[in-house]
Task: structure prediction
Amino acid sequence: MEPALDHASEGSNVADTKHRNGERLQTVIIGGGVCGLAIGWQLAEAGQQVTLLERERCGQAATHAAAGMLAAAAECEPGEEQLLQLTRWAQELWPTFLDRLEAASGLRPDYRDEGTLVVALNRDEVDRLRFRHDFQSALGLPLQWLEGREVREREPHLRQSAAAAIYSLEDHQVDNRQLAEGLKRAFVNAGGELREHTEVAALDCPEDSAKRIHLANGEVLQAEHLVLAAGAWTRGLPGLPDAAKPPVRPLKGQSLALQMDPAAPLLEHVLWTEQVYCVPRRDGRLIIGATVEERGFDDSVTAGGLYALIEGARRALPGIEDLPLLESWSGFRPGCRDDAPVLGSTPVPGLHLATGHHRNGILLAPVTGHCLAEQILTGEMPEAARPFSLARFKPRSTNRKKPLLQSA
Ligand code: FAD
Ligand code: GLY
Result:
């Protein structure tokens, strides 16, 4: 049962349109993470009237916790060939997206294009790495196989036993925290209305009229289009009709950052081992991530989590032992049943989803913004995003066909 909402709120606390030339809000977006901000910016730039509601400050949830890897290849697992089309498209869009963002916000998030090394740290790991290389190369990914000596030439601080690596040329990285700030500025500069510290308490989503958004402060907004981009919290928004609920849950990730000497960093490329990834920022921060845990919304940072990360990173880069610990944190990936995002319309007209980005939300920011804006402006999703609609989770029909001939 959906929670019932008070439809008698037609009166004075309905803050829809009266102070907006008698019109309803065109689009309301719930969630000021990378997804909500990217969509809001595209729509505001296209001249739409957009209001974005964020219960805290923008970009402080999963978007803050991320490592900023744009890792279409390093993240690609067997069975994810369709998702790869979306993630590779995102990689193509990134350079122009950055230029546009800089022009729109005056801020260019730090972007590094040295590429990614996925290493085998001993002979046992080489066979598994070779399998991965062959699988990913067959998908057309631009990869190079490096022998141990070649890997250590590129990264001299790697453990001497490093036996081989896949060098993924087009898996770059961006500073995700700067990205969130840039998107926020671009959205506001384009005329978007940003309401931080504004929590949505409940939704009322009739099929044939404006959506109502009940705020925790008692205000009620109305919107023609409502975009749910509340990350791991999207499914739990009170009042969301069952038919529009995405199968999304929180997948906890713990990470930490060490401080390297920026003039003499221990690492230049993004590095993956079988246990951890290490992401070197230009300012000397070395991000080490991340656990993947099914623990609901438990946000604790644990000794076990940090130990596993440090031990995993030390196996690859023994020199980290001397680095000061800067920060540790946790965040919630919005993980979908099939690890792919849910993008676009729902069975409720005017209600749209942008969630389930799991491990790739930063990478997919340009695609998410573009696709949801297209959906709202034209009613059509770009081709590459169509397989990622909510409709893919429709329950199979249980109606069996009657046999043509009944046996006596
Ligand atoms: P979020 O950033 O979580 O934003 C959702 C927002 O909705 C929040 O700000 C929240 O406050 C708001 N909200 C929720 N409920 C309400 C409400 N009722 N009212 C108002 N506001 C509400 N991706 C990559 O591409 N590369 C990486 O290297 C990478 N590394 C990661 C490492 C870790 C440890 C984690 C946890 C994730 C990582 N990700 C990475 C995944 C990426 O961070 C996410 O996919 C992405 O940030 C999801 O963005 P979002 O906007 O959907 O969600
Ligand atoms: N994409 C890295 C992570 O989710 O941990």
Notes: Confidence is low (pLDDT under 50) at residues 1-22, 398-408. The chain has two domains: 14-76+78-105+176-247+337-391, 113-170+250-335.
